[in-house]
Amino acid sequence: IGNSCVLTCPPKSNITMVTWKISPKVGGPCTLGYRADQNKTDRTNCSDSMNWKFRPDRDPALEIWQVGIDHEGNYTCEVVATEGNFHKTYHLTVLVPPRLTMYCDDHGNPVCKATAGKPAAQILWVLESNSTPKEEGHDNGTVTVLSTFTAYSTNVTNTTCIVSHPAGNQSMTIAC
C-alpha cells in the first residue's frame, strides 16, 4: 500500500493495439487502450492514479501510483501484433502492514494490538502464554488483532510481543 506498482505486457514487435482491462474488487471496470495505426490512446473510467508507464508504442506497461486497497482486482493486458494476439492477467492483492501498539490492561496484563492490517497479523509472545487473539474486521478489508498476555508465573517483568505479517514483522516490549 502506498507504493507504485508496474504491470508489464508481453513484449512484442509490430504492435497493432494494446488494451488494459481492469476489474477492481471495488468500483466499476476501466480500460486503457492504444491503437498504433492512429497513434492514439484512450481511457474509460480509469482513475488518475493509473496510466501507461512510458509511451505505449514503446512499452505498454501499466503503472499504478500510490497503490490503495481499492486497486485490488484483475488486470489483463491484451496485445494485438502481426504475430498474433497475446494476453497476460495479473491478480493484484494489496498488503497493509498493521500499526503495532502495546499497553497494560486494568489487571496489569500486557496487551499487544496490531491495528488495520491486511491480511490479519499473527501475534506471538516471546514467553509462553495461553492467550487467544481476538480479531475485528473493518469495512475496508483490514483486520485488527488484539492479544492479551497471561503469564504462567507471576515473576515476569518485561514482556515482548511479535507481530508476524507478510508486509514485515515487528516486535515491542513492555513492563506492566
Describe the protein's architecture and organization.
Keywords: Disulfide bond, Glycoprotein, Membrane, Receptor, Transmembrane, Transmembrane helix. This is MOR1A protein. Its main location: membrane. There is one protein chain. The protein has 176 residues and is mostly beta strands. It has 2 domains: 5-92, Immunoglobulin-like (Sandwich), CATH 2.60.40.10; 99-174, Immunoglobulin-like (Sandwich), CATH 2.60.40. It is built from no helices and 15 strands. The strands form 4 sheets. A 5-stranded antiparallel β-sheet has the order 4-3-2-7-8, with no helix packed on it. A 4-stranded antiparallel β-sheet has the order 9-10-13-12, with no helix packed on it. The protein is rod-shaped, with a radius of gyration of 23 Å. The chain starts with a strand and ends with a strand.
